[in-house]
Structure formats: structure tokens, C-alpha cells
């Protein structure tokens, strides 16, 4: 299994495409620039199976409808943010200067807790990691050694908690209990900026490790 990081949109949020040798793929957090996502899929001759959302902020969902309509695939999201997709005030697009209001139809499948999910040939663990937003989740692909964390954890940083529903103590607890407990060589694929690893962040992340 392989993956590619595609920074998209005004905030350069990371969209990810996870794909296997047979040509199936998952689209994760298609935040904008649908053409960029489509071009990679076409180049690799991939067959999308689903869209997975780590959370429902506008910079991670802006190209959902373009991808859902083109490939006729379902969308997965945590149930706590099911109303955010269609509400620009909840998903933040109404408040962000320079962003058009983002309205997305409801998700086809809702996560409710920690669970093992299989979509086509892909199996992964859904880890609830709230704090940046109430319904933030991470997708752990254990066999391939990586976790896609949205805006929960960054390289030497962590997600914002000053947005609606954000809670700093909850975010730190999510990172320590759900992410830092993963195998230390696990690659961390964040919602913005560069890839890191669990051991790097567990050892050197001042924003998480310096908190009590």
C-alpha cells in the first residue's frame, strides 16, 4: 500500500490518496482543487472506493462533492460533525475571509467510536481524537505503518483549539492516549505541513509534551 500527500486550497490542507497495487484507492480530506486530485487518480489509473474525512472544517471538505459526483463513492465522517458539512458557519467557511461558503451534502456513513472499518480492500482503525474539533478522528493503517491525523497532531505542533468545539486538554489527551501509544515508527500524516513520526513527536513536540 502507498500514499501521496497533495496540499490543496487557500490553507494548503493536505489531501491524501491511499492506494494499493491492484489500483483501488481512498480519498482522504479532499479540501479543494478537485482537478489536482483527479489528475493523480487518472495518472495512476486508480479506482476510488470512498472519501474519508478526519473532520469537517471547510479546508478539508471543499472538494468532497466534486469527488463524490465524479466517482459515485460514499463519504465517511464522525457523527458529531454530520451537520457541519452543510453549514458554512459550523464548517468555518462563512468566517474565513477569502473563502467561498462550503456546502456539502450529508455523509453516507457515520463513525460513532473507535472501530475497525473495511472499505473494499482497505482495512483501518478509526481512532476518535477530539480536541481540534468534537468529531476529529484519525485513520490508522497498522499493516502499512501510518496514521492520518487531520489537524490533531503536527510536526512539533498540534491543532488549534480556539475554533468552535475545540478543547486544549481534550486534544492533548487524544494525542497522548490515542496517538503516542501507537508503534513509535508509525508515520504521522497531518492535515497541514510535513510528515513526521510518532517517536519524533513523543520525544520532541513542545506543544504537547510541555503541557500538564
Automatic annotation (TrEMBL):
Cofactor(s) listed in the protein's UniProt record: Zn(2+)
Metallo-beta-lactamase domain span: 12-192
Record flagged with keyword Repeat: no
Top-level taxon in the UniProt lineage: Bacteria
Keyword annotations: Hydrolase, Metal-binding, Zinc
SUPFAM superfamilies from the UniProt entry: Metallo-hydrolase/oxidoreductase
Keyword Metal-binding: yes
InterPro entries named among the record's database cross-references: MBL_Glyoxalase_II, Metallo-B-lactamas, RibonucZ/Hydroxyglut_hydro
The protein, known as: Metallo-beta-lactamase domain-containing protein
Native source species: Domibacillus enclensis
Amino acid at each position: 500500500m502507498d500514499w501521496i500527500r497533495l496540499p490543496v486550497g487557500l490553507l494548503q490542507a493536505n489531501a491524501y490518496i491511499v492506494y494499493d497495487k491492484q489500483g483501488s484507492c481512498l480519498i482522504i480530506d479532499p479540501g479543494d482543487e478537485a482537478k489536482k486530485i483527479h489528475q493523480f487518480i487518472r495518472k495512476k489509473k486508480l479506482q476510488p472506493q470512498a472519501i474519508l474525512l478526519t473532520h469537517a472544517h471547510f479546508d478539508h471538505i471543499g472538494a468532497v462533492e466534486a469527488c463524490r459526483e465524479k466517482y459515485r463513492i460514499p463519504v465517511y465522517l464522525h457523527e458529531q460533525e454530520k451537520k457541519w458539512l452543510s453549514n458554512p458557519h459550523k464548517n468555518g467557511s462563512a468566517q474565513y475571509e477569502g473563502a467561498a461558503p462550503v456546502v456539502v451534502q450529508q455523509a453516507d456513513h457515520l463513525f460513532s467510536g473507535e472501530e475497525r472499518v473495511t472499505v473494499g480492500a482497505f482495512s483501518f482503525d478509526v481512532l476518535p481524537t477530539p480536541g481540534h474539533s468534537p468529531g476529529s478522528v484519525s485513520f490508522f493503517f497498522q499493516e502499512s505503518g501510518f496514521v492520518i491525523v487531520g489537524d490533531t497532531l503536527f510536526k512539533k505542533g498540534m491543532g488549534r483549539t480556539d475554533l468552535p468545539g475545540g478543547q486544549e486538554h481534550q486534544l492533548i489527551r487524544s494525542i497522548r492516549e490515542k496517538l503516542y501509544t501507537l508503534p513509535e515508527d508509525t508515520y504521522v500524516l497531518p492535515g497541514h505541513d510535513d510528515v513526521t513520526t510518532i517517536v519524533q513527536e513523543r520525544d520532541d513536540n513542545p506543544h504537547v509534551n510541555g503541557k500538564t
